[in-house]
Task: inverse folding
């Protein structure tokens, strides 16, 4: 019965969709969203939403995924507030026309690049950071002057409904619509023609999104995931070693219990360091999450039963189970999985071939830390690569010999907060980049504008053609000013054409 | 057989308008062994990527036959081979990139006449036009890349936020891997080599598929690249639909396609299977708005240069239609008539300075546009055609009905309809009612109109008081928006199009804030808020220092 009602509701949303889109397009055509003042007011609206609804956001995140409110602030609200401030501060500069250099032969021509909004864009976000991954792109889309449809994930329903019910009160309703729903709604949305689609989620759905977009020649940006490795070198200083481990643990369990696209997936370490590493990690996990991590409330739960069972099945493999050196208890009722560490699970096991996306941390031992390069290269390109080392040579090699969305040395996750760095994948981890100005660019078209006047014209541009004109062109294109002058003065012979 | 196979290519042309999907053309050829024999002896025009040899003995002829079957397996082998070269790391090398670019530059320099000849064969492209728009542009592109590569490859420093203090950050351009370039027939040389230059400059291995509709240029490019560049990383695959399909089955790290929106959709859908990003350089109906206050002669010349001076209108950025005021239209037509006569003589059908229509398929497509009821009687100039020579004279039409094919499809030929409107801002509505064009042109001295034009019209690029020239400006991104495509290239934009911008963040272990780590406390939330919203670096530093000591006490 409930299912039926839900289906009916979805159908209703679908029927409503095309009307909504036409309204959004009409509003876009009015030109309102292109105004700088409008864009600013929308960004401020996002800010007010975050500030006024902070408690509700905390609650929704707690309810949907058991996220602790400090974590929620650190990874979602806080970062978003920072991003809005950044966008507000730089909006004028981002919107301004950029002059393009021209060679002097082109005088008195001027060239510029004018950023213009794309029109109506679609943002499909994910459940692990339901606010962060919805609003971060929204900030970019609004700053760039677009109208937007946002579809939050149905897997985090409390957060989605908060976005759908509360967010529009803070924004211009004519320009931003939040549409809730599951796969049926998603499919309907993808049938429509958009001017850009930003999708955050899995590679499987990413392929579907791009295939649908191809029908309308809609450019897409895919923010996918992958197995993000953490390479841990040896350290001489205990302070460094301990902080490296803390950052690894935080990069694994600290962001949505490992259910994050940039969360650490596995650790690569030299064999000789493995046993002491495991001991230290155990100690630190206890310090961070207590003897009973579930009671600490400092670690999120698994989003739903399906994902819980997926993670459980990763551990069900007997060889994998045997490699568990810490944790491993699962509570199906509360969907909680304890921080778990595994030492050298088989490389062909699902836990090492699929994205883990949960609080299981495989540690893979290598003979030499340099072997990590080959190991990383044997897998699809990751969204993020973390390397804990003080070895400058290794750093250089990592940068030039591996490929990933980003590389962070001696920390994890923090690159997500850097507005000046592009955030996005490569290869299997997606394409397109955003955050800061890159978000603005993602939702803008860079229109090239060249301005000429009627005063000067190169007579040699026009037919009928002859060798003299040909030679002038050659000099012109190669900016061979001397040749131009000589030719014009008749001091240089045109080249002979057979 | 050459002509037979050519006709075959034409009938399943990947160009605009053809409605056929991808039939398997090659298997058809394979079931007629008697033809293969003939075909091999004339194999120069449809060679795949075998070594260049026409004087084949019987045994190597059999080998040749084998190699011509460029199917999915062969495509997979090719990609595998190039991936091997890429993984060896040699293409990332600055020296390698430069030497390949120099190879291309040298090739253009040395083989200029052959290129001009091939272009003439395929399109009757006038030598000057070939030189100006294909050879010089390619050379310029190459020289710019050689000159700037060092700078392009340099990591870009990025400021780091206080939340990650102390740290430093940079953005590094790295090659994507093995990329595919599919080019087209109207500028078969430039549009093949220009993206290849970008791909090579960025350090990728490349497969280029030139257009089978310009077969002479296609086979010349295949022959020349084999001679002038490193074949372990840069390859040409010739062929039509079957070969393209085989290539599109493969996993690439980027696909760069120039051509029609219809095939663009197929390319993008194929790319989606492998999550491959695409750049689509498509076309569209590029409008020209002409105001009445302009220097009429100069405007007319510039329009002609952009329309008939560009492969006789067969160019993605050639003016497609003109919008002008009712009063001004007759004057503009007179000016165009005078200048056309000056450029191409009294009988343009005889002029050596005009390209022909590329093939019978496109010739018929254009005559259909022209022969439509309520269109054919709108011709005010030209209209002559010669089916044998595939020539159509520069043709101007006035007030063609809005709903006609000509006003709804990309013309891509020497026909230029003029729409007369009451006032020019009405023209904006006409343009905005169509899909976004690759280029939009405006001729005016009215500053207000210029402002509105830039603000209210969306197009890949725009040019005020001229046509085409923005294409030659390497500091401007060239590419479409909406139906005219996605992604841009030229100059550094080409390098960027084939690079991944890798974010690199360097952190040290100093200044670690314990607020980041659980167990979470209300105090930590307060500090976190201060940290993340604080603007004054001194306060942040003080906080971090305070936290560090707290962290130590903690232990």
Result:
């Amino acid at each position: 019965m409930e299912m039926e009602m839900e289906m009916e509701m979805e159908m209703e949303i679908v029927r409503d969709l095309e009307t909504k889109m036409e309204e959004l397009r009409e509003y876009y055509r009015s030109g309102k969203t292109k105004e700088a003042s409008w864009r600013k007011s929308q960004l401020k609206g996002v800010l007010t939403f975050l500030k006024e609804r902070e408690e509700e956001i905390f609650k929704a995140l707690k309810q949907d995924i058991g996220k602790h409110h400090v974590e929620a602030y650190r990874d979602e609200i806080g970062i978003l507030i920072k991003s809005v401030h950044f966008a507000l501060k730089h909006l004028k500069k981002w919107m301004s026309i950029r002059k393009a250099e021209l060679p002097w032969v082109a005088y008195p021509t001027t060239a510029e690049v004018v950023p213009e909004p794309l029109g109506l864009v679609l943002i499909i976000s994910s459940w692990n950071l339901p606010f962060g991954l919805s609003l971060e792109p929204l900030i970019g889309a609004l700053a760039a002057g677009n109208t937007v449809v946002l579809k939050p994930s149905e897997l985090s329903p409390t957060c989605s409904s908060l976005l759908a019910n509360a967010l529009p009160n803070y924004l211009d309703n004519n320009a931003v619509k939040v549409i809730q729903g599951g796969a049926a709604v998603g499919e309907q949305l993808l049938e429509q023609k958009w001017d850009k689609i930003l999708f955050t989620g899995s590679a499987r759905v990413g392929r579907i999104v791009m295939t649908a977009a191809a029908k309308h020649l809609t450019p897409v940006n895919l923010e996918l995931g992958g197995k993000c490795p953490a390479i841990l070198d040896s350290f001489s200083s205990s302070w460094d070693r301990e902080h490296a481990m803390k950052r690894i643990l935080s990069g694994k369990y600290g962001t949505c219990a490992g259910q994050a696209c940039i969360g650490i997936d596995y650790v690569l370490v030299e064999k000789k360091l493995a046993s002491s590493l495991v001991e230290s990690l155990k100690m630190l996990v206890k310090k961070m999450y207590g003897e009973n991590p579930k009671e600490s409330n400092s670690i999120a739960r698994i989003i739903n039963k399906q994902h819980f069972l997926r993670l459980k099945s990763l551990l069900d493999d007997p060889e994998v189970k045997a490699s568990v050196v810490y944790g491993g208890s699962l509570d199906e009722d509360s969907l909680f999985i304890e921080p778990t560490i595994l030492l050298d699970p088989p490389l062909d096991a699902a836990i090492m071939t699929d994205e883990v996306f949960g609080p299981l941390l495989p540690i893979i031992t290598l003979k030499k830390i340099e072997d990590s390069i080959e190991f990383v290269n044997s897998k699809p390109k990751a969204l993020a690569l973390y390397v804990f080392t003080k070895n400058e040579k290794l750093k250089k090699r990592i940068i030039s010999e591996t490929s990933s969305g980003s590389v962070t040395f001696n920390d994890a996750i923090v690159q997500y907060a850097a507005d000046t760095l592009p955030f996005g994948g490569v290869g299997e981890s997606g394409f397109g980049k955003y955050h800061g100005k890159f978000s603005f660019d993602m939702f803008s078209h860079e229109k090239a504008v060249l301005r000429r006047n009627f005063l000067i014209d190169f007579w040699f541009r026009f037919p009928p053609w002859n060798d003299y004109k040909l030679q002038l062109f050659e000099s012109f294109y190669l900016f061979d000013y001397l040749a131009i002058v000589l030719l014009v003065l008749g001091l240089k012979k045109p080249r002979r054409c057979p | 057989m050459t002509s037979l196979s050519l006709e075959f290519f034409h009938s399943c042309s990947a160009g605009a308008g053809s409605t056929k999907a991808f039939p398997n053309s090659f298997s058809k050829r394979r079931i007629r062994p008697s033809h293969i024999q003939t075909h091999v002896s004339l194999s120069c025009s449809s060679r795949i990527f075998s070594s260049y040899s026409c004087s084949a003995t019987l045994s190597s002829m059999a080998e040749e036959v084998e190699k011509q079957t460029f199917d999915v397996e062969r495509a997979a082998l090719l990609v595998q081979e190039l991936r091997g070269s890429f993984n060896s790391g040699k293409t990332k090398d600055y020296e390698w990139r430069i030497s390949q670019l120099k190879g291309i530059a040298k090739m253009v320099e040395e083989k200029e006449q052959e290129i001009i000849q091939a272009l003439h064969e395929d399109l009757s492209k006038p030598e000057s036009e070939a030189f100006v728009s294909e050879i010089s542009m390619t050379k310029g592109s190459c020289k710019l890349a050689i000159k700037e590569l060092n700078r392009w490859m340099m990591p870009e420093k990025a400021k780091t936020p206080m939340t990650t203090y102390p740290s430093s950050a940079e953005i590094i351009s790295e090659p994507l891997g093995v990329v595919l370039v599919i080019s087209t027939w109207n500028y078969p040389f430039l549009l093949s080599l220009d993206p290849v230059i970008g791909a090579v400059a960025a350090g990728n291995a490349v497969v280029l598929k030139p257009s089978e509709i310009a077969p002479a240029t296609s086979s010349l490019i295949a022959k020349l690249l084999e001679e002038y560049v490193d074949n372990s990383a840069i390859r040409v695959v010739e062929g039509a639909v079957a070969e393209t399909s085989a290539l599109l089955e493969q996993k690439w790290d980027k696909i760069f396609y120039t051509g029609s929106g219809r095939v663009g959709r197929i390319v993008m859908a194929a790319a989606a299977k492998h999550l491959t990003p695409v750049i689509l350089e498509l076309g569209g109906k590029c409008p020209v708005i002409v105001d009445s206050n302009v220097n009429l002669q100069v405007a007319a010349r510039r329009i002609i240069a952009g329309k008939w001076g560009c492969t006789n209108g067969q160019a993605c950025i050639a003016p497609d239609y003109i919008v002008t005021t009712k009063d001004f239209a007759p004057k503009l037509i007179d000016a165009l008539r005078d200048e056309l006569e000056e450029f191409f003589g009294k009988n343009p059908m005889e002029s050596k300075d005009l390209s022909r229509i590329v093939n019978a398929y496109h010739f018929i497509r254009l005559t259909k546009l022209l022969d439509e009821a309520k269109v054919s009687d709108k011709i005010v100039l030209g209209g002559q055609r010669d089916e044998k020579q595939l020539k159509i004279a520069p043709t101007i039409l006035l007030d063609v009905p809005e709903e006609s094919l000509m006003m709804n499809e990309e013309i891509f030929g020497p026909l230029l309809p003029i729409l007369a409107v009451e006032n020019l801002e009405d023209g904006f509505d006409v343009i905005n009612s169509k899909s976004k064009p690759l280029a939009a042109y405006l001729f005016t001295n009215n500053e207000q109109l210029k402002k509105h034009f830039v603000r209210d019209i969306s197009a890949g690029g725009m040019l005020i008081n001229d046509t085409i020239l923005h294409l030659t400006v390497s500091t401007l991104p060239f590419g479409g928006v909406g139906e005219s495509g996605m992604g841009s290239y030229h100059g550094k934009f080409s390098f960027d199009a084939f690079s991944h911008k890798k974010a690199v963040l360097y952190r040290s272990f100093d200044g670690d804030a314990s607020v980041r780590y659980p167990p979470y406390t209300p105090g930590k939330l307060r500090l976190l808020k201060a940290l993340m919203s604080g603007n004054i670096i001194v306060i942040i530093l003080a906080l971090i220092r305070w936290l560090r000591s707290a962290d130590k006490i903690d232990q």
User: Anything to note?
Assistant: Chain B touches chain A through 110 residues (CB under 8 Å). Confidence is low (pLDDT under 50) at residues 1-66, 535-539, 549-555 of chain B. The longest strand of chain B covers residues 167-175. Chain B has 20 helices and 18 strands.
